[in-house]
Amino acid sequence: MAGILQRPILVGGLGLSVAFALWEGLDKSGGGELGEWGLLGLVAVGAGTWLFKPRVPELDLTPLPATIDRAAAERSIARTQAALSQLEAEIANLDGNKTEPTRNLAHFTQQLDELTPSLDRQSVCIAVAGGQAVGKTALIEVLQSSDIGQNSDVSFVEVPALFTREAKDGDSILPTADLVLFVVAGDITDPEFDAVQRCVAAGQRTIVVWNKQDRCLSGDRADLLQHLQSRLQGSLKTEEVVAVAAAPAPVKVVRHQADDTVTESLEPQSPDISTLTARLSQVLTTEKSKLIFASVLRAAVALKQDIKIYLNQIRRDRALPIITQYQWVTAAAAIANPFPALDLLATAAANTQMIVDLGNIYQQKVSLEKAQVAAANLGELLLKLGLVELSTQTIGTILKTTAVTYLAGGAIQGISAAYLTRIVGLSLIEYFQQQDIETTEPKSWNWDAFGSILKQVFQQNQRTEFARSFVKQAIVRLSPQFTPADTRAIVRDV
Ligand SMILES: Nc1nc2c(ncn2[C@@H]2O[C@H](COP(=O)(O)OP(=O)(O)O)[C@@H](O)[C@H]2O)c(=O)[nH]1
Ligand SMILES: [Mg+2]
After folding, report:
1. N or C terminus of the chain: which is more exposed, having fewer CB within 10 Å?
2. 171 pLDDT band (50/70/90 cuts)?
3. Number of independent structural domains in the chain
């Protein structure tokens, strides 16, 4: 609570800050229920009249870079560097044992340090991907003995077959590859099509290789290739879809001899990958450095993402205790207040403060005015989604009917308010986590996105062990005459 005291906030008057300040005193002195009940009425009364402020415009998402060159890769590295510095600063401010954070920081730093030198690398790695038995190994073998394979700067890697039970779905094929040859052995299937789309969307340079074209009648080949090219039109240029035969099956040859006898023999066919090698050498001579810049850019983006995930983990550990504080504040306010409307104001006041505090942790500097607007919109959203009622219902299903006789009047409302505040707090964490770590000036709230997060978080927690243990915890906290063991009398078993 010390953080709140240092930044007392006047929400529509003195009420809230006074209440928070007194709450702080109580909390420290281990104040009992009486104080909590009595004082928190102030929260409600003090809350202002900003419930119906206008909505703010929606969030706009930053697109990926359109042109990939050295400068774009360097900008991406710089952004990753900024994220790393942010992580470093937040680790420096952590309380407690920093061994693991420091080790992770060192690991990220080492990865970052490798990015800039790799902009000048000469070697190119080509990944050969696709389903099982489409001819990846066969293709690599022929490629290696071609002119391209003779170039010592070019290496090929076979990606483990996709679409098998062991295969990981949804990942980009091989983040470190500079070029992907995506092999299909006939008309492209839906999963193959999706995988190609994912590669392209991830900025992975991709050539689709239709292998085993020898299995198709020579008269049909051109049509089939054209069909494939037009299916992939939206994501790949025509010349990025080629037909080959890496290991064509031997052909049965029937010969009529001069003596009228007929002989049959199987004649081996030589591989035909000429359209692919032509395309590859063109790409490697004209776009080699672009391929490398793109790889470095992807690696920088991926590293930044890893840093962001870790940073969010650290921030979440700091955010959870804050949510816990506010959930008890709103609970006490709900218990103290017989009027549901005032109750909502108190909730809005606590939510305003919670938005500011969590925003600070997530480096989203939310001004008080913006937080008030956000909390007001949030209140409307909670009503619109019916979450206020639903949380009361959720608590109702967890409590035994005897609870009413055991618990003080309003305690159930208090628990529901606390529960709802926790859901809001967890949703705020989720929402802030999705923001770009570079933007410290928060974009305007995306209420549609926040609404779906709220619904999702609510559903996730509704009937789980979380809700039950929360209720038990709340009873002990809000009605100190109960011990944890007593709660069994009023909380249902699963
Ligand atoms: N008819 C025909 N068969 C091929 C061709 N390329 C590969 N194959 C055969 O397809 C099977 C699987 O090939 P392989 O390279 O091991 O596929 P991978 O699992 O994708 O590595 C083998 O029996 C190959 O001989 C081709 O161009 N035409
Ligand atoms: Mg293979």
Report:
1. C
2. low
3. 1
